[in-house]
TrEMBL record:
The keyword Hydrolase applies. Keywords: Hydrolase, Magnesium, Manganese, Metal-binding. This is NUDIX hydrolase. Its cofactor is Mg(2+); Mn(2+). The lineage of its organism: Bacteria, Bacillati, Actinomycetota, Actinomycetes, Streptosporangiales. The keyword Metal-binding applies. GO terms for molecular function: hydrolase activity, acting on acid anhydrides, in phosphorus-containing anhydrides; metal ion binding.
Amino acid sequence: MPLPAELATRARDLLAGLVEPVPARDAATVVILREGPEVYLLRRKSTMAFAAGAYVFPGGSVDVRDTDQAVAWAGPSPAEWGAVFKAGEEVARGLVCAAVRETFEESGVLLAGPGPDSVVADTTGDDWEADRLALIDRSLAFADFLARRGLVLRSDLLKPWAHWITPEIEHRRFDTRFFAAVLPAGQRTRDVGGEADQVAWKRPAEAIELARRGEIFLMPPTYRTLSELSAHDSVAGILAERREIMTIMPRAVEIAGEMRLVTG
């Protein structure tokens, strides 16, 4: 991928040691699946500072309160998730909580239930919407939200998928773990606004073709993930895929006098 002039200049400055890369913030992204298979995508508003106009999966940065040990938990433990993502237990706890919280904030889908074997069936009422908005403006902590409703986070409904780190040339950087999850029975996504101005369910191959035709914009991690998902003809096939989580951080290299971003 050739770099625009501004990033090409920054890439050369980084390679020359003239500037330092900004730290990458821990973040989580969730690929919501439904039979087809289809994935849920949001188009980020053109005014956003990061990935403006791009079609992305729900997700966002870890809130410091996502590491709260008071979160009611069912499924693989933070230590087990840490082993998968090569992260400490506290970081892993925050990543899983952020994955579930951000998914609810950005799609209305909640991967939690009254017990370890149940899932909330409907999150569309006014009271749910009030809680969702309170989570977004950070006036409500995720642990308190679950406790108030007597809910347990279902980490077993998440499948680890990938680990991407934003290139060092970017001014805003994220250390993002990708998860996949099936839309729970009875729940439905909705256009909840906020950072997105459009949402859509797409078959992975369809989204890739739209990007190739220039009709939508996909960032490299989203494009790669959709390509991997397109190899399967069912949700069961996606969930059955064995994944070895390798860290990918695209880097800038100069090729024939042109600065390019490569992942290899």
